[in-house]
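[job 0412] stage=complex_fold ligand=zinc ion status=START
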Amino acid sequence: MFIEKLQPFLATSYENFPKGRTIGAVVLRTTQSETIFRTEGTGEPMCSEYVQAGVADTATIPRLVMTKRKQIAPERRKGREFLRVHELLYPDPKGNSICSLNTNAPCEMCVDCFLYGFAAGGEGAQKSRVWTEDAFSVLPSTELIGDRTINAIFETGTMRDEEGKASTALNTSEYIKPGVHFLDIVTFKDVTADELRYALGNVLLTTRYGAVSSRVGRMENQILGIFGGIAELPSSLELVQGIYDKLATDQREHPLNTGVLIAATQNVISTWTSKRGISVQLSATELDELIADVDRHLSIDDQASFLKRLSESYEPMRKVKAASKKKGKGKEQEA
Ligand SMILES: [Zn+2]
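[job 0412] stage=complex_fold status=DONE, emitting structure tokens
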């Protein structure tokens, strides 16, 4: 049973102080359509970094990078969609608006605030217990980027205006090709079993990433391994470098076969339980069981009771907060 195996690395209830219980997940993210990651505007190049190709292969190559922010923001939004449906988002401490991301008004009360943290709002801050890393592409970015020049079309839907003149407005755009593999490590610190289910659900159910994600940016996430221990797993970069070494030279080109990639990944991560601080890896069956369990908890029938149970698990903390706030106010009045 997966849950018994992970029990020593899970918290029994939410606590304020870290205790070093660490669950690590290996996530494979595969683009299913053209994808664009960039901060703003057009014409900006894709985010890439020059790094060593493999652990053994010391050549330098540019790798595409999917930054932490690009991963976590859509995933948090996915979970918050469910919280919103079941009315489990709270008003912010000033009571002006319902908890929302990227505003200065986190509610400090909802599942998302407790798990992913928030920056100083009314009452200090909460550290995130879901840690992500930049995800790297396995292959060099030069293999993975396409360039498209688009003639702007007229309102008639054609490239020619009413007088028959061709459109001259050009738009060049770089994109990441479909079928590109990114790998990364997600770390869960001192989470309860239900928090783990919630956070893994967010990773598994998020399918759109990046700029203009409603038109492009379809991505599939797969969990290839779950580990428990007292320390973090090796980094995403070490992982892709290890995989790169395992690929034959003629396999190192796009499109890379997903089956080949998964086999190479399993090969690399199978040695990790002998690394410092990492005690257990779920077997393939246990991992399937865990994913089925996450799906079940978030299914339309079980979602409401699952999220309510998770939200109620923070109730003792909310009471402490409310009490300390009252005390604070009392003092102010005395002064
Ligand atoms: Zn909140």
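The chain is about 35% helix and 20% strand.
[job 0412] exit 0
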